[in-house]
């Protein structure tokens, strides 16, 4: 049977996929065997995803709810006392006046920034911000200035140069950066914002449940929750649930309800999920032992990697990168570690800058100190072995 001619679009798709394979950047889905390996690529930081108490709370929430679907957007038939209750509870957790729930962290960031910022505004974005923050800024039409990661001198010059510009000025950053594991200096950013008449938006996704008093985040640890224009907390990582909340003042919540398209035009999440988030918050608040354990094993990992001559960057949290440089080496080491019983992913451009391919070690409270020592030894051994000529994707 003769080949069917491909359209121009099909040819472009195949060409781009071939290019990704040639550069060792092609990605594929796989299923993690959670019973056979040490999982080092999970965001389940507090180990709540299989906690019997949280499972029981979900079953109870499902049993209590009248329907297992919300049946519409929050502005139509999808609102409920459960969602309003968990938003009030989360605002108290975050230390803000109000909170508004979105179906995902991506939707929260895109909805917040695309509605809040307008053409004529200027936004100052850290170079390593998450894609959801970047996309929200792009959709807004605001002028964007990307400052090098954590470079406060560059940021101050940019703020100074634009202090008389028309429109609002907003600094956007994560608190704990997802690929570096470092912590931004929120007090310094806030001081710059106040000096130059700007607002500050903080994404606490990787700090929620893990950092600060009762896992309330970096801003809460510093007592600066009410100084931000908005704080975004996620539920899909340490809280082992789903969605995210934009936390801030009353006017901000009202504005997002009326203007954030990812909120207005999305079917509400099932009401029972609010019960899961409620239970997860209670468990996270009480998880001081788990947070302490995370700090200890993260410190041991960074120390052991340094002793082995490996680069963990500026990590100061439970996220510890092992920066290896080339895509091929990162894939090789990830594959060898998999053979040693560790699930860890090779992170490559464009997720990280070219030449900084790495393993992203994401620690959870279920990881032991012995696991850390075995991982370091296995990583050192894998680097001593030559990479295979045929690199598989990991």
Description:
There is one protein chain. It is globular and about 60 Å long. Helix 3 packs parallel to helix 11. The chain is built from 14 helices and 12 strands. Residues 389-394 have low confidence and may be disordered. The protein has helices at 8-22, 52-64, 81-94, 105-116, 131-140, 152-161, 186-195, 218-221, 250-259, 261-264, 272-285, 288-307, 327-339, 369-384, and strands at residues 38-39, 98-102, 122-126, 143-147, 169-174, 199-203, 230-234, 244-248, 319-325, 342-343, 346-347, 357-362. The strands form 3 sheets. It has a 7-stranded mixed β-sheet with strand order 2-8-7-6-5-3-4, with helices on both faces. A 3-stranded antiparallel β-sheet has the order 9-12-11. By secondary structure, it is an alpha/beta fold. Helix 8 links the parallel strand 6 and strand 7. 42% of the residues lie in helices and 14% in strands. The protein starts with 7 loop residues before the first helix and ends in a 10-residue tail after the last helix.
